[in-house]
UniProtKB/TrEMBL annotation:
Annotated InterPro entries: MetalloPept_cat_dom_sf
Native source species: Colletotrichum fructicola (strain Nara gc5)
Entries under Gene3D superfamilies matching the protein: Collagenase (Catalytic Domain)
Region of interest called Disordered, as start-end residue ranges on this chain: 170-218, 353-379
Signal peptide (UniProt feature, chain positions): 1-21
Biased amino acid composition, Basic and acidic residues: 170-183
A molecular function (GO) term: metallopeptidase activity
Name of protein: Uncharacterized protein
Length: 676
């Protein structure tokens, strides 16, 4: 019996792929929304959804089982096509189901190093984003996601699948180039031929141009659910088991060549990385694209398809992990490499690229720059002395000549007035971008004329940077902000300049390990134009005149009422806790560049909290970068030790014993008493 918020489904649950269209009849309970309120209409589908609308034991559906990811639609698909798609769906899961893919990538392993980049140079947050994509791909198999599925919970956990052959209804734009219609001249294929990875070698005319392509729901295309269209080339490929049989018959050398293991599951995995809803992009990871590269001796810039080009993409070492985490085939071929390694008990290192790398920074599928800062390559010490290796692989292996680019640039433009933020944290906290003490964009906004473009670069105090950093920078002196306004088509402005940047702070200010850092880049369309920012780090060299001498400065006492009401603060208690707080500081070094207290102690008695902190003052520069916590001035004696600093912060402040601070060079010694 279904719950009252569920559905009684009257249908044939077990329909063979060759059956006629199924009629699905529903009886809904109108007491509230149910799972079926968000499901597709299966009434015109040739075949029932997959996995079936029953559990593994054959039991009819219940609400929980409906909340798994399912394939539906089947427009243009034959029974044989549908079976191959179902098989690839299951095999795709087999590629990512093990913990060494979905949970714990071995970043020091040869596969990870060859496909993702140097393990010690890829930032942890990028590793987490890559791991997130695999975890979500694996969860797409579940009847019930291990955590809450993305965006609208279980409401859109369906993927529409279509096939390009037959009457062309599955691919009306003929992106695949497969349409067969004797009564109508089909439109030309929307994608040029590709090649097999060998420099200068093009596909023959009879070769298909794409394996498959994905389309994400948008207001423009009117889709409610994610869609994957499979081209004829996909159905001509081997299944995962067939690829295994084929490859294992090869020589030991060819067994180590990933091109001999090409299969339909790899294509399906590739396409799922493009599904923004399921991957939670760009909220939790960057859009996964098909990146384009310029390569020496290759006349036409290829996309990073296939294991050879994926390895070349990795060799752009300027920004490790930045480009590889954005490329769909890198995810697909890394998973295949791990699968093959387990089968042959050795790493499949072919086709090898050696030190061959792109001539310039990789670009998106439309040829646009992804990062304006990465313009020159950077040498990888691990590749020093390694020769460039030209392509050698399976002569039957082909890569498409077209990117699966329809999912972002054409189909899902960002809605106006919505902030767009990169997934990379920019290290600068949101309250430095805009906080109570000021913001970086105030001066920029003062000069805005919404009919004209404006661009400038400022420091963290909002001052324009002309040639050199300011003499007295704040804490984040090593960062500057590129601020820009691009005038639009003249529509009315829905937000002021200040409101636009405040919106960017709210939308882009939750990155990094503590969820308080601004994204590296952000933009917002406000109708009349687009405001944007980019954070850049640079090497700061302080002005010698701005450095702080390593001497004792004036003591600063807290206001008597700074910490509210509290019990009496006794000297004996304060001395006792001081001894504990400063104990061991003779072996402690206070270093520049570490945020927060490097020595912290709290003790309480009689409802009074005694707090002791030692820290390097934000933005302070000295000729040295570290000092001893016990004797910061490098000498012992009365009044120049941690113990005496803290005791005097109590004794020499006439404020009821709540304390104060004293600074030795850039190192601050703080004692304060407050209510416990």
């Amino acid at each position: 019996m279904l719950s009252r918020s569920s559905v009684a489904l009257l249908a044939f649950l077990c329909v063979s792929p060759g059956s006629a269209a199924v009629s699905w009849n529903f009886r809904r309970d109108t007491s509230g929304p149910s799972v079926w309120d968000y499901s597709p209409n299966f009434s015109n589908d040739t075949f029932p959804p997959w996995p079936p609308l029953e559990d593994d034991s054959g039991k009819r559906i219940d609400v929980a089982n409906l909340r798994g990811t399912r394939l539906f639609g089947w427009e243009g698909c034959t029974a044989e096509d549908a079976n191959k798609i179902k098989e690839a769906w299951e095999d795709r899961w087999n590629l990512v189901k093990d913990d060494d893919i979905k949970k714990n990538i071995n970043w020091k392993g040869q596969a990870a190093e060859e496909f993702w980049g140097p393990p010690t140079k890829i930032p942890d947050y990028r590793k987490q984003q890559i791991q997130h994509i695999y975890a979500n791909i694996e969860q797409m198999w579940s009847y019930w996601w291990a955590w809450e599925p993305p965006w609208l919970s279980w409401r859109r956990l369906y993927i529409e699948v279509t096939c390009s052959g037959g009457n062309g209804k599955g691919d009306p734009e003929n992106f695949c180039g497969d349409r067969e219609d004797p009564n109508k001249q089909p439109p030309p294929p929307q994608c040029p031929p590709g090649n097999d990875g060998s420099p200068g070698q093009e596909l023959e005319e009879e070769q298909e141009r794409m394996h498959a392509f994905s389309t994400n729901p948008s207001r423009k295309n009117g889709l409610t659910y994610s869609r994957i269209t499979f081209c004829n080339l996909f159905f001509n490929m081997r299944s995962m088991s067939e690829a295994k049989t084929h490859a294992m018959r090869q020589s030991p050398t060819n067994q180590r060549n990933l091109e001999f293991w090409e299969n339909r599951a790899r294509v399906f995995l590739h396409e799922t990385t493009h599904l923004e809803y399921f991957m939670e992009t760009p909220k939790k990871a960057d859009y996964v694209r098909d990146l384009k590269m310029s390569i020496k001796n290759v006349a036409v810039d290829p996309f990073a398809y296939g294991p050879y080009y994926a390895r070349i993409l990795r060799n752009w070492n300027k920004n490790p992990g930045y480009y590889t985490k954005k490329n769909a085939d890198t995810y697909a071929w890394y998973a295949v490499a791990i699968w093959v390694q387990k089968l042959i008990n050795t790493y499949p290192n072919l086709p090898a690229a050696g030190s061959k790398r792109p001539k310039a920074a990789p670009r998106d599928e439309d040829g646009n720059s992804l990062n304006s800062i990465d313009t020159e390559p950077e040498e990888d010490p691990a590749l020093a002395g390694v020769a460039e290796i030209e392509h050698e692989g399976d002569p039957d292996f082909k890569i498409p000549g077209c990117a699966d680019k329809f999912h972002i640039a054409d189909e899902n433009p960002p809605p106006p007035y919505t902030a767009e933020c990169s997934a990379d944290p920019g290290a600068v906290p949101y309250n430095v971008f805009a906080g109570q003490s000021g913001n970086v964009f105030g001066g920029f906004c003062d000069g805005i004329d919404t009919t004209k473009n404006l661009k400038t670069t400022v420091d963290t105090s909002g001052k324009v940077i002309k040639r050199t950093p300011p003499p007295n920078p704040a804490t984040w002196k090593n960062y500057k902000f590129h601020l820009e306004y691009a005038a639009g088509a003249g529509r009315g402005c829905k937000k002021t300049c200040n409101d636009a940047f405040q919106s960017l702070k709210a939308a882009c200010g939750s990155k990094g390990g503590q969820s308080n850092e601004m994204s590296t880049t952000g933009s917002i369309n406000v109708g009349c134009g687009t405001y944007s920012y980019a954070i850049e780090k640079f090497d700061y060299k302080p002005d010698p005149a701005s450095t702080t001498p390593l001497t004792l400065q004036e003591r600063v006492c807290f206001d008597k009422d700074a910490f509210g009401k509290h019990g009496d603060v006794y000297e004996m208690d304060q001395r006792f806790f001081t001894g504990i707080a400063c104990g061991g500081t003779a072996d402690k070094v206070i270093k520049k560049g570490i945020r927060g207290a490097q020595v912290n102690y709290q003790g309480n008695v009689n409802d009074v909290l005694y707090t002791y902190n030692i820290f390097w003052k934000d933005g302070c520069e000295m000729d040295v970068d570290e000092v001893n916590a016990m004797v910061p001035l490098g000498k012992t004696g009365e009044g120049v030790t941690c113990t005496q600093f803290m005791i005097d912060n109590y004794k020499k402040c006439n404020n009821g014993g709540i304390g104060g601070t004293i600074q030795a060079g850039c190192v601050v010694y703080e004692f304060k008493a407050s209510e416990n």
